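Hi everyone, sorry if this is the wrong subforum. Our group has a chain we'd like a structural model of before ordering constructs, and none of us has done structure prediction before. Sequence below.
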Amino acid sequence: MDKLIKGIERLGIDKRILPLLKKYIEEIELFNPVYKLIRVRERDELIVKHILDSLSGAALMSRYSGSLVADVGSGAGLPGIPLAIVLTDKVFTLIERNGRRASFLRDVQAVLRLPNVVIEEREAEISTPGVFDVVTFRAFSPISLESLKIMRRLLKPGGVVMAYKGRRDVILNEMSVVEMEWKMVPIQSPFLNEERHIVVIHS
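Answer:
Right subforum, don't worry. Here is the predicted structure as tokens:
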């Protein structure tokens, strides 16, 4: 867990959250062989590529007003669970359509006793519209007009989509078809030697 400790130090996050993060990591490692939540070979890869990368957006998200956040296609709870552990003034709704993954999320919520986490086992397309101040997701596939339509439907007026993305040139290519107001914010993901950005798209 050395990288976890050093990573949250680099991100300026209070070390008092360490026990919850460690328990979350243990839950992923326990269920991952059966549920196939994420593809990792070892604990350090889980910590660097998933836990710390999710937390790298916490400072930016904390600057946006409003307390209701949706994590769409939450999967193993990334980035929603790590962000909920840190940003206790916000309520995170984890939207996951896969039954086994949603079951895992409910287990994590119970084990970690996170009062600011809500689990929705459903398609994002049928979630209640116009509810959230922020919609976030870690996008390993390209941002499309169709996916943005789904995300924006969930937002209150004035809300934002915050997508975790990688290289600048790839983002510029993806976003070339998007006519909405947006910006690309560089983030530092500890120990990850890759370009990381959050794309903020206004509703």
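For your construct planning: The mean pLDDT is 95. The two ends are 39 Å apart (CA to CA).
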